[in-house]
Amino acid sequence: MIGAGLAGMLAAAVLSDAGVDEVIVLDRDELPDRPGHRRGLPQGRHAHLLMAGGIAAMEELVPGVRKRLLAAGAHEIPLNSGMLALTSEGWLRRFKREGPVMLTCSRALVDWVVRTAVLEQTRVEIRRAAAVGLTGTAQRVTGVRTGAPGEEGDLEADLVVDASGRGTRVVSWLDALGITGIRERTVDSGLVNATRIFRTPDGAERFPLTIVHADPFARRPGRSGMVMPIEDGRWMVSCGGTRGGEPPADPEGFLRYTLDLPDPVVGRLISGAEPLTDVHLSRSTSNVRRYLEKSARWPERFVVLGDALGTFNPVYGQGMSVAAFGAQVLGRELARGGPAAPGLARRVLRGAAKPVETAWSMAVGQDVLYPGVRGGRPTAADRLVTAYTRRMMRAATGSYAAASALWDVTSMRTPPTRMFHPSAVLAALMGSPLPPSAEPPLTPGERELLRSLDRTGLPGV
Known about the structure:
By secondary structure, the chain is of the alpha+beta class. The protein has 13 helices and 20 strands.
């Protein structure tokens, strides 16, 4: 196993459960013994959302992980009532009816909780070592080459899984084995993420998760902001701006950026909050797809999962769930015939590529609409889907049926075809039965709390 991140540890749990005698995970980083940022995860300091579909998949792979996350301080947020969301079509209303939930916490906590649970429940071993290549042939991989240049050593393995993430070298490794012509594609909106941690103000512990979404239809750079509750009584405040609309790294500029969003609610919330960190920037946000599953040849005993197959603009909150779905595919194939079954690697690759392709299409379909995007432009099909999605989003500002369809898809509980279910189509055609809301749908108590936190002096709270 290459990589001790989320995808790697979930896959390691699957291998151990399948009866593999020895599961060794290699990682070049020194892993913290408590939740903490590590160098190999460039997006680790920014907001991550664990969607309902991903939670269910992770719970199947590592039983009890949801309870562990909640006990460690993660927050469970119902999409229907626990979130303020300003979309390109207006504020989504909050419904008292049932809807999917998501978990919010730092990415460091997710990784630490999963890693701890896997090590406690299985015989998985983690070794600090850098994977620098594969051993074997184009027909079969036999192990991993480790170490610094000139100091390589070979580690033999019956099955090798690359879950090394966004920085994988899998294409060059395959090239060294004689497997060439792997197609890659990058779509880069130029998104820059800026994140700062604040202490949650007294009385605001149950304030809704607040998101001001970027507008991909405005023909100008996308700008977004989020206030997300995380563990230890803190708010994670993340801003994102596509090329030409990037957020700054200085604290004053960061606050101004939040106040200049389509609604200043994020800035008003944090203007009176105590900052606990500096502003951290990240530019590792491009969508990258490696079409490994389409290779004419593929070696036995070599599987690729997670970000090594495809990475997505992190603003859409898909990566962790997609990693869990890929590990589920590995588990199903191992149950059919074990790690030595002929063709297992190819079947896992093709199965894991399906949720990757779905997430890729959703992310790229929006990113190509921003000015200055590199690597793609909207097709006629993209424009058709976009027009329908906008109509559905407009209906969702006041229609539970439309909002429910959107929640099911964005929470990754159902495939995007859910948007074309007859009930969803009817809701989109009928539109919202309520007029658009010009202000965030706050309760009287929440509105008073926002007023008490605001230090901006702006009118209209």
